[in-house]
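== Sequence entry ==
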Amino acid sequence: MHEKIYMRRPVVEIDGDEMARVMWSLVKELLLEPYVDLKTEYYDLGLRHRDETDDRVTAEAANAIKRIGIGVKCATITPNAERVKEYGLKNEWPSPNATIRKVLGGTIFRKPILLRNVIPAVRSWKKPIVIARHAFGDIYDGEGLEFGQSGYVELSFKSGTSVNSVRKLVTGPGIAEVKVNSLSSIEEFARSCFNYALDERMDLWFAAKDTISKVYDAKFKQIFGEIYEKSYAQKFRAAGITYSYFLIDDALSRVVRSEGGFVWAAKNYDGDILSDLISSGFGSLALMTSELYSPDGFKEFEAAHGTVQRHYYAYLKGEPVHTNPIATIFAWTGALRARGKADDTPQLSMFSDTLEWAVKKTVEADGVMTKDVASMSAIPPSHVATLQEFLTRVQENLELALGRGEQK
């Protein structure tokens, strides 16, 4: 019987939906609670409970992270009209992640989990490429307009009696769109990226298209450059890392020739696309972590994938499921490692390292993997495991490491 590892303070635990919720429970039961004196402040963001509370629980969970400092989140449903009907909801509630981001501020960092037998699609990639997405504003808060004849499209800003505007002549029927952002949010984004790069000892790229977008993208470039020179240049030099600005098309050509090992900061739409591109290049969303990193130091960890609806319906029928729990496990290890670092309890951080080692041994050395990893593996699997089988093997390897100190 192992003596449980001490936790000084809790993390905020945010439960979710469907197959992700099932994995969440199993990971806790098999890989955490037997070994860690697990302290959490629990919030249920399952869709039905969100509906029962008129979504107040989401804001409560976000504010708990502000109070406690560190959270770990299960994947949740953002309901559409079909989900409203399926669950009998009062409302088409907003994205929980968007609500939490609005409370905490900060940036989403998505980092691939590297496995030796999953070879990246780009042969030169040997180290993780972390996508830092500015998940605020841009076209996601934009407005569009369609018109049926020639005329002027006008963009104007009004404050009191002051009006600034620009006009663009359009010949014939057409469409237009406006996107907005706030300078304070861009500044928070920049600071979060610089702080994350320092914490991880990784070079930082920022890429945009200021040569064409001479106001919008140029302002991002200016803010990043000014904050870097004023507050971070000396720290980066001391850490042996660099900050670079590239035009985004130049960055795309550079990334396919690189070894990886850097943070790539991108505007909201660019980051949305690049995170999927990079995850597919390294494997899949099931092998990618997602961390919300606030400039105030708050952190929230989760898997990058969704609730795995199709597997959940099979699970409800009693069919065997081969859902990949690796990103969920790494969400927990990220949160516990951060808690250990913040509380000066290194044994908790060491446990996180050991659990991640047990996961990698299961896949790389034992050849036990779920179907999605088996389909990408450069080495034939010794066993294509169900979710339960995979977690059981990880637990066996965790026992091995904890009992004998065999690691790395």
User: Anything to note?
Assistant: The first helix runs from residue 18 to 32. The chain has 14 helices and 16 strands.
